[in-house]
Records
---
Amino acid sequence: MRASMAACGEAVARNKSGGTKVKTHRGESRWHIPDLGKLTVPENLRALHTEIAAPWGIIDLLDFLKESDFVTAFTDAFTDAFTMVATREVSPREVIRKRLLLVLYALGTNVGIKGVADGGRHGETEAALRAARHLFVNRDNLRKAIATLVNATLKMRDPLWWGNGTACASDSKKFGSWSSDLMTEYHARYGGPGVMIYWHVDRKSVCVYSQLRSCNASEVATMMEGMLRHCADATIDRQYTDSHGQSLVGFASSCLLGFKLLPRIKNIARQKLVKADADDQVPSCLTGMVADKPVDWKIIGQQYDQMVKYATALRLGTAEAEQVLRRFARGGPKHPTYKAIEELGKAVKSIFVAEYVASQELRREIHEGLQVVENWNSANTDLFYGSAGTLPGSDKEHQEVSMLSLHLLQSALVFINTLLVQSVLKNPAWQEKMTDADKRGLSPLFWPNATLYGRIDIDMDRRLDLGLVA
């Protein structure tokens, strides 16, 4: 805390913080942080997308799903003897594989099984597809298939272009839902009844976890749940979120659980730093931006064992984050452990605010991370186009199956695009063209090269030339 405050004071005093200053507004001292400005899209990335379309052309969205399965065999998660509902298999495995791909496409685009059965010449009847949906597709199998595809994407990525993938961003998107579903609530901000889907997306557009929540669910609890339950083999140590995904409890929990919470706080201008001790000296340039009351280390020491107990329960899955927060947020006097968590949160948040104010690079990093998850939400609208994007089903299980199918379909799009981009970048001429700005803006989440609508056909004997062995 002392080091971050000193570094913040030095950066502000010597104008090394990107123009951040302390100004007085209506008698109150506030941070004045200049706008970062909009970055232009590098021209090389536009040319790269054109280069990708030249040899492969426009690819059917169903082929993205099919090719991903040929490379990763994620459909094995559905046909494993220990996970499927059926006691035995009568149909050949290749026939089941084809039906599963059609069913996943039907659920992931929200076209529906009847729409897929009637919309193409694939040779499968509606009854056969509904039987495959009933026997093989459930929430557990979908999460296993997603984990297979996500980990394969992380393994196939070249760190030269994509980095190591140790940071992710979380954000929510409202989907309409049936009024017969008990989770459906009216959303005060977006308007209309529906539910929320929380996506956890790494900086290069690989979604590592998805959750279905009601409109009034705690975003802080959802953020912690996603960090603890994500399906990626990689260790994620940085979490970007918006104002609703942070709180004192969130900062304290991130410290106890071993990751760094990096939110984009809306009212950052009014955030105060906190002294570690009452006798600590405050840099003169930070006058008015440091709270008078220091952190109460005594109560943190008294409740340390209890804090570790709750953090361990969250990590092991014996308690959910929302249950823990609900226990502490009851009316009446505050629980002593809750007080200690808040004091720890003040300390961790003070360090973050000091670093955020002092570093323009950190502010840019957080903004870019959140833009990635916003782009993921934009793709949801185009890919999940059936029934006006309304989640079908009158219970949570049916809605989660649709959500996870969309997650799987979008992950397949990212997986194949990753391979296509890397195939082009193997050319030494392209390696010389790519600048640091190009690498920063490089993303596999684009879909102008995908046919989203039209006749639904699938040819299991046709393959894309990806230069890989299945």
---
Amino acid sequence: MTFAHALVLFVELYLGIGFVFGLVFALRLVERVDPSAHAGTRGFRILILPGCAALWPWLVLRLVRPRRDGPA
């Protein structure tokens, strides 16, 4: 397996996982990260889907880590 083939395989895997996670996140889990997203329309959820798919590792961390209620 060449480096280029491994890189393409990694990108395909990353985006595949991201797309599946993005669908679940945009439809069900976005309210956990941002409570005001509860009132989001279907169009809003479609608009955030590409970003959710691209940034899925960061969003997983945001879902798993407990919130800090102190000043930043």
